[in-house]
């Protein structure tokens, strides 16, 4: 169906005034008055609607149009003309309107504002609201900006497997992949594995990192951008069971190289959204986070903070705050601690570096102190951790010791340790949680509202 996108009309209306065109979309609102009927139409390509003004006296089948409700889909043919409305300097005067799809009265998206909770129950329709259309356009722009950033810096985009045999993060939060069915008579875990599809246990990947390392040790600079899965028992606004991660991995790099890369990436992608989605950002500022635009400009223009884990623990102890969870060297930072550091101490993104080795993953490089690893989390105000990063252990013996000490199944990691036997090099990488980044950029408070069809604890709509 040949037609003009709303975003193009808004961009180039000056050249389009006086031209005939067809525009398609859904009715946002329809209003009848004595001589004219107004339709606000939107096709999802733009934050702004198109006003269609029907002159009832001259329009052939006005009754069919007047019968339509919010949500009905139309193809409108007519002429774009200048309007006296300062908000929208043009409008469409139709000579023909085809009703493509009517809506019955039980259409759940009426003109009034709906709560995000309600909209979560209708993920197949919520993209038609301003909030979700804006979110999904920002999501698309953010994805494009990520590719643009890495491709501009000699990174190769690689695809790592979704079905894996190793638990990268070692936290046991894997969703199992199996063809066994309920009621099969299986006597032991060994028999279960041996008779399964892969003749071994398999799961959905929690991270593309391990395979990403293999690619980086061939191609030097790679990044992945794909779905990852975690069966975490965390029913929080920041945890999804299926979320997307961007995982660059860089050979011949240490922790500080990767901090530099992560900083440049966050700045680049934030700026890209500011430049390419200004109306969406204005919308989120108006309805979801006051000061959002200034916050984003600050991300682009100011330095991020860096603090040692040990110093962060001191700051928390000195804070005089009553935290629910204990604060002590060797314990992990909880959300409330991260919040204090970002929202009250630093008030900007902060890299916490050099965590105790026992609270971090097996693959992280041991620091010379023997107690901490060259790891960092990037914490940001309002959201908390958005990036987990580290330099990787590139020494064969030290890596083997971690795998043995943690009682991991050595067979699953032989190929990974091989990378330290065959031309090992210092290397480092990080994982950015794509949806967490979207929460930060839009001010939306729940991860379930950043992805079209969210999967989370107790939720598969
Ligand atoms: O800190 P994580 O667990 O790090 C890794 O997976 C490393 N293998 C990354 C790497 O070095 N290549 O996860 C990385 C990021 C977190 O900082 C967070 O933003 C996001 O992934 N994340 C989640 N996002 C949504 N829902 C969840 N359940 C998440 N778990 C982690
Ligand atoms: Mg982490």
Structurally, how many domains make up the residues? 2
End-to-end span in angstroms? 32 Å
Label the structural class: alpha+beta
Q: Could you give me the name of the CATH homologous superfamily of the largest domain?
A: Bira Bifunctional Protein, Domain 2
Approximate helicity band: 25-40%
Number of strands: 17
Molecular shape: elongated
Number of helices: 14
Low-confidence stretches: none
Q: Whole-number radius of gyration? A: 27 Å
Give the class-level CATH name of the largest domain: Alpha Beta
Bound molecules: 4-amino-1,4-dioxobutan-2-aminium adenosine-5'-monophosphate, magnesium ion
The CATH level-2 architecture of the largest domain is identified as 2-Layer Sandwich
Biggest sheet: strands, sense, closure?
Answer: 8 strands, mixed
The overall average pLDDT, rounded, is 96
CATH fold naming of the largest domain: BirA Bifunctional Protein, domain 2
What percent of residues are in strands?
15-25%
Which strands sit side by side, in order, in the main sheet? Answer: 6-9-10-15-14-13-12-11
Main features:
about 450 residues, eight-stranded mixed sheet, BirA Bifunctional Protein, domain 2, binds 4-amino-1,4-dioxobutan-2-aminium adenosine-5'-monophosphate, alpha+beta, binds magnesium ion, elongated, 2 domains, single chain, about 30% helix
């Amino acid at each position: 169906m040949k037609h003009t996108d709303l975003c193009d009309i808004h961009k180039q209306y000056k050249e389009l005034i006086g031209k005939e065109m067809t525009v398609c979309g859904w009715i946002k609102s329809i209003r009848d008055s004595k001589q004219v009927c107004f339709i606000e139409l939107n096709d999802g390509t733009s934050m702004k609607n198109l006003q269609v003004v029907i002159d009832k006296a001259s329009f052939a089948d006005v009754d069919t149009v007047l019968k339509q409700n919010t949500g009905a889909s139309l193809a409108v043919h007519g002429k774009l003309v200048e309007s006296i409305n300062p908000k929208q300097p043009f409008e469409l005067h139709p000579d023909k309107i085809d009703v493509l799809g009517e809506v019955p009265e039980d259409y759940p998206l009426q003109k009034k504002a709906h709560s995000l909770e309600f909209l979560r129950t209708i993920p197949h329709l919520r993209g038609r609201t301003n909030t979700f259309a804006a979110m999904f356009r920002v999501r698309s722009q953010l994805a494009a900006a990520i590719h643009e950033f890495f491709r501009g810096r000699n990174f190769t985009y690689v695809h790592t497997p979704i079905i894996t045999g190793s638990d990268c993060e070692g936290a046991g939060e894997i969703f199992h992949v199996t063809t066994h069915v309920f009621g099969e008579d299986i006597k032991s875990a060994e028999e279960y594995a041996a008779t399964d599809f892969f003749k071994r246990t398999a799961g959905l990947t929690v991270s593309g990192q391990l395979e990403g390392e293999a690619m980086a040790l061939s191609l030097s600079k790679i990044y992945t951008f794909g779905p990852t899965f975690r069966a975490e028992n965390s029913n929080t606004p920041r945890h999804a069971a299926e979320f997307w991660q961007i995982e660059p991995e860089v050979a011949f790099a240490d922790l500080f190289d990767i901090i530099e890369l992560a900083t440049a990436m966050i700045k680049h992608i934030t700026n890209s959204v500011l430049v390419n989605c200004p109306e969406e950002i204005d919308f989120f500022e108006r309805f979801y986070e006051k000061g959002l635009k200034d916050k984003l400009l600050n991300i682009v223009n100011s330095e991020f903070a860096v603090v040692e884990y040990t110093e962060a623990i001191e700051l928390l102890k000195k804070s005089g705050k009553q935290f629910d969870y204990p604060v002590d060297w060797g314990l992990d930072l909880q959300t409330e601690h991260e919040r204090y550091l970002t929202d009250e101490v630093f008030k900007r993104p902060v890299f916490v570096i050099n965590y105790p080795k026992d609270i971090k993953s097996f693959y992280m490089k041991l620091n010379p102190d023997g107690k901490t690893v060259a790891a960092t989390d990037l914490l940001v105000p309002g959201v908390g951790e958005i990036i987990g990063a580290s330099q990787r252990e590139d020494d064969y013996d030290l890596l083997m010791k971690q795998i043995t000490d943690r009682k991991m199944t050595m067979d699953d990691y032989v190929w990974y340790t091989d990378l330290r036997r065959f031309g090992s090099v210092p290397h480092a990488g990080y994982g950015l949680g794509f949806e967490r980044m979207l929460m930060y950029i839009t001010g939306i408070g729940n991860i379930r509202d950043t992805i079209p069809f969210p999967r989370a604890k107790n939720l598969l709509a």
